[in-house]
Specification:
This protein is of the alpha+beta class and about 775 residues long. It is about 35% helix and about 25% strand. It has 18 helices and 30 strands. The strands form 8 sheets. The protein has a 4-stranded antiparallel sheet, with no helix packed on it. The longest helix is centred in the N-terminal third of the chain and has 37 residues. It is elongated and about 125 Å long.
């Protein structure tokens, strides 16, 4: 208590950590909650730390981040200190060969930067929770503590009381526990506090630099699963110095964590080390001035018997010892080389075991059940974002579409023999001034007309910020009829990500994202009853949606229209219209962990038309039977556990089931789902990429499963023998997407009809040749 600064730091740190632990009760807003009415708001009573450019409250986000920093500092500080004390005390006390091997290993670990070590270890060990992240940090940050404890232990073991304990027959473990460790507490206090502060700084640095995507529990960014003050700072740094509150207030919280930790360590050292104590009470000073008591002086003056023991050592033994000593003195380099070889050998053996355990096994656990596996496109250009539909009027006839980098329009595919042979060619012509921009969707109506919707760039530039949506209908009599949907907008507005579906009576629907105001976009629906020649004005699905993205639509056999997607408020949502798209009823399907709908395609509060580039991941799809509606979607991002889930509803939009698709392997990832209903059997099919069989999660196979009710799913089967790299798929889909020469798109497709399933995906084996082809297969 005499160390005023340490006591004040302890009180301050307790308050800060308590605020973090109670963040769910103290924070007025969620970590990702968006308030479109308070964009880039300055600090106020409503928002003490202000808000960012999409309306997220900095104070609430900082509180959630403090919870992560508090657990990290406490757990890593305690666990890392314990490891360092055990290793350092053991090496320092035992000395000799044990000390040399252990400390050379510590030196080897210290030569590698902790930042690199943590990132590489996280990539191989697949950390999934905050507790695992804490253990990972402690396992690679204890070395400085071990060095300090070891140096102190070397001095303590030469003291008389240690030699006396050895002479009395005390075991090494008892001596270390009773004599060595208590005498290194002062050094441990300082080193342990530095370790806790280092853990906080390292985690904040990882989050700020965006490198935390290698730590799986961080999900590619900490705001997807694990809140962090560093991520808050990273998001604020993109807004510039004019919005200073985003940097200042979260930055001060980091200082309020790190600085008190150092002062508390200094106070603990002074309290536990009498030889270095600077803050001594008046009572203790008076006792020291009086000196030792009379009884103590008498005990010190009493004579002590001296006992000498002489042991006769044979000359031969002395000669051998001298020879070994001289050899050891003469050959220090050889000993150093042996120690280095042993350390590197152990390290190599550990790396080999880790490779065999984590990386080497890479074979899918699901059986290959597909037939007619083939290159469907076989085209010169790279194919991206594929879609497929079955012709309900002709058995075995299928129609598909994809983006093609070598064409000014989309590429279309057709087969009439149930997928055994395919033909492909250019889709609808767009004129001399326009080019296909991406996001192709397809359907086939009851009359056999082939339907396609996609976005178009009027300037034929890949980065066009004002694309518009067209719908094209193909018949044998008229060929392609192409119509731009909705009234023409000003030059600074856009349309994006269409989804087309057909229903009974020949009615065609298209749902897509449209920028309605500068800071507001919505999902709109337009329909046609005359084969695509005329279209109704776009109708807004719901004004309750906040930053809606990735619309997908389908029509039930009774003509009811269903639209699904994601948004910042509901997560995954489902809308139903029984009056041809005039009015909709909206329900939430499920909250989306790590929901990024508010910022995945937004710049300074302004929505941008790049959903296929930045919002890839959930890929919601909707399929409907006469009695059930199935919404499949993906959860998770690269670097965190990913799974495919389903929400099942009845015709009244009452929830029947929410859960994973099948029984997923907890050690595997599933992502990028596509679903379809087989009208003849009533079963829903879901296809997705699956890493089951590869512990490192670095290889993914395209697999499919089916269910009649959405709860019980069949065992997945593979659509192809060859695997793909999830890292390559995610990176190129996230960065390039729209018809890029090296992008693959984040979309797969599946069609089901008459008991046969036809999945389509993008093959990525020949990357150097840029031969990204559409591959297809047939599943019974």
């Amino acid at each position: 208590m005499q160390h005023r600064l340490a006591v004040a730091s302890l009180v301050l740190l307790t308050i800060v950590f308590a605020a973090g632990v109670l963040s769910s009760h103290l924070a007025r807003y969620g970590y990702e909650q968006v308030n479109i009415n308070a964009l880039s708001a300055a600090p106020s009573w409503q928002h003490p730390f202000g808000t960012d450019q999409v309306g997220r409250d900095y104070f609430s986000r900082t509180l959630y981040g403090l919870r992560t920093e508090a657990e990290l500092a406490i757990v890593v500080g305690i666990l890392g200190t314990l490891i360092g004390v055990v290793v350092g005390a053991t090496a320092g006390y035992l000395g000799g060969f044990t000390d040399s091997v252990v400390m050379r290993f510590v030196d080897l670990l210290l030569t590698v930067p902790s930042l690199v070590t943590v990132l590489v270890a996280a990539a191989f060990l697949h950390t999934d929770t905050l507790s695992e992240v804490c253990v990972l940090f402690a396992a690679f940050l204890w070395m400085p503590v071990a060095r300090i404890v070891r140096s102190t232990s070397l001095v303590v073991r030469e003291q008389e009381y240690v030699q006396a304990a050895q002479a009395m027959g005390a075991s090494d473990l008892r001596i270390i526990r009773r004599h060595v460790v208590p005498n290194v507490v002062s050094s441990v206090a300082v080193a342990g506090s530095a370790l806790a502060a280092t853990a906080v700084i390292l985690e904040t640095t990882l989050s700020y630099l965006g490198l935390s995507r290698a730590v799986n529990s961080y999900g590619g960014r900490t705001d997807t699963k694990l809140p962090s003050v560093g991520d808050v700072l990273a998001a604020a740094s993109n807004e510039g110095l004019f919005h200073w509150w985003g940097i200042v207030f979260p930055g001060l919280t980091v200082i309020l964590i790190v600085a008190p930790i150092y002062f508390i360590g200094d106070g603990i050292r002074d309290a536990l080390d009498p030889t270095q104590r600077r803050y001594v009470s008046e009572r203790e000073l008076k006792r020291r001035r009086r000196g030792p008591s009379r009884l103590t002086r008498l005990a010190r003056a009493a004579p002590r018997p001296s006992v000498s023991i002489r042991i006769h050592t044979p000359d031969a033994v002395v000669a051998v010892v001298d020879a070994l000593t001289r050899r050891r003195v003469r050959r220090p380099r050889r000993r150093l080389l042996v120690e280095a070889a042993v350390v590197f050998g152990l390290t190599a053996a550990a790396a080999a075991l880790l490779y065999v355990w984590q990386v080497n096994p890479a074979s899918s656990s699901w059986t290959l059940a597909a037939t007619a596996i083939q290159d469907v496109s076989d085209a010169d250009g790279a194919q991206t974002q594929v879609a497929i539909a079955a012709d309900p009027s002709h058995l075995g006839r299928l129609f598909a579409v994809s983006n093609d980098t070598a064409l000014r329009t989309v590429r279309v595919y057709s087969t009439s023999d149930d997928g055994r042979t395919w033909t492909s060619g250019a889709g609808p012509a767009l004129g001399i001034d326009a080019c296909a921009h991406g996001e192709a969707s397809t359907s086939v109506d009851a009359q056999g007309r082939q339907l396609v919707a996609f976005t178009v760039s009027g300037t034929c530039t890949q980065s066009d910020a004002t694309p518009y949506v067209v719908a094209a209908v193909h018949t044998r009599a008229r060929g392609w009829v192409v119509k731009r949907l909705g009234p023409h907008r000003p030059a600074d507005f856009w349309d994006d990500h269409p989804s087309i579906a057909s229903g009974p009576g020949g009615r065609i629907y298209v749902a897509w994202s449209r920028l309605l105001r500068w800071t507001y976009e919505g999902i709109v629906v337009s329909s046609s009853v005359d084969g695509g020649r005329t279209w109704s004005p776009p109708q807004l699905v719901s004004p309750r949606l906040s930053f809606p993205r990735l619309a997908a639509t389908t029509v039930a056999p009774d003509g009811t229209l269903y639209v699904t997607g994601i948004d910042a408020r509901h997560g995954v949502w489902l809308a139903r219209s029984a009056d041809q798209g005039k009015t909709f009823r909206l329900v939430r399907v499920a909250r989306l962990p790590g929901n990024r709908a508010a910022d995945c395609a937004t710049a300074s509060g302004h929505p941008t038309p790049f959903q296929g580039i930045r919002c890839v991941g959930p890929n919601p799809t909707v399929a409907a039977t006469r009695h059930r509606i199935f919404v499949t979607y993906g959860v998770g991002w690269p670097g965190e556990p990913q799974s495919v889930r389903v929400g099942v509803f009845d015709r009244g939009l009452h929830s029947l089931w929410r859960g994973p698709v099948g029984r997923p392997d907890p050690k595997a990832d599933t992502f990028w789902p596509a679903s379809a209903v087989d009208a003849s059997t009533g079963r829903v099919w879901a296809c997705f990429y699956d890493t089951a069989g590869d512990h490192s999660r670095s290889r993914a196979w395209y697999a499919c499963t089916s269910s009649s009710d959405g709860r019980r799913w069949s065992k997945p089967v593979r659509a192809a023998r060859d695997s793909a790299s999830p890292e390559v798929l995610w990176e190129d889909a996230r960065v390039y997407a729209f018809a890029d020469v090296v992008g693959y798109g984040g979309s797969t497709a599946v069609a089901a009809a008459h008991g046969t399933v036809h999945p389509l995906w993008i093959d990525t084996r020949n990357l150097r040749g840029r031969e990204q082809e559409v591959f297809g297969a047939t599943l019974p």
